[in-house]
Amino acid sequence: MIQRIQSIYLLVAGIISGGLTFIVSLWSNSQTNTIYVLDLFSGNSILEKSIPVLFFISALVAFVTIFLFKNRQLQFVLNRLNILINLFLLGLLIYLSQTLSGEALVSEKGIGMFFPIIVILLLVLANRAIKKDEDLVKSVDRLR
Predict the structure, then answer these.
(1) Is 24 left (phi over 0), alpha (psi -120 to 50) or beta?
(2) Which of 10, 24, 53, 60 could cysteine-pair with 112, CB 3.0–4.6 Å?
(3) What's the pLDDT tens digit per position in 5-21?
């Protein structure tokens, strides 16, 4: 059952959380310094240091969830947990982007700021597909 559509959604969500966030910038400030996720490890705040960890945890949960295809209920619960992680991550990114030191000057937000939204959308689509599979299995069990 690895070839199901929810596995594709989870794989793309894991690739976005685990790989693309380290390649694409989060924002750039007025001194044209581009900030990536790995640059946040050198920050002075615990919030800045937790963002790369949350991206990694989100990717790890997405990849682990792919291989739990035999236990659809656990897959569904882990996807909801991953959605909560990404909502928290989105809140942290919005908070940090609003409290940047050079925010009074011009700063540009990168596409990396929107990755948690894309991952949440993919996880919701995966949960829909898992629910559809669960309903199909329950309807077949009623016929026996």
Answers:
(1) beta
(2) 24
(3) 999 999 999 999 988 87
Residue with tokens 């690739």: 15
Q: Can you give the pTM of this predicted structure?
A: 0.86
Residue 17, CA distances (Å) to 32, 55, 91 in order: 25, 5, 16
Between CA 100 and CA 76 the distance in angstroms is: 36
pLDDT band of 143, cuts 50, 70, 90: low
Domain ranges of the chain: 5-139
Cα–Cα–Cα angle for 120, 126, 130, rounded to 5 degrees: 145
CB 125 within 8 A of CB 9: yes
82 CB-near residues (< 8 Å, 6+ apart): 13, 58, 61, 62, 65, 119, 123
d(CA 135, CA 55): 31
Radius of gyration of the chain (CA): 18
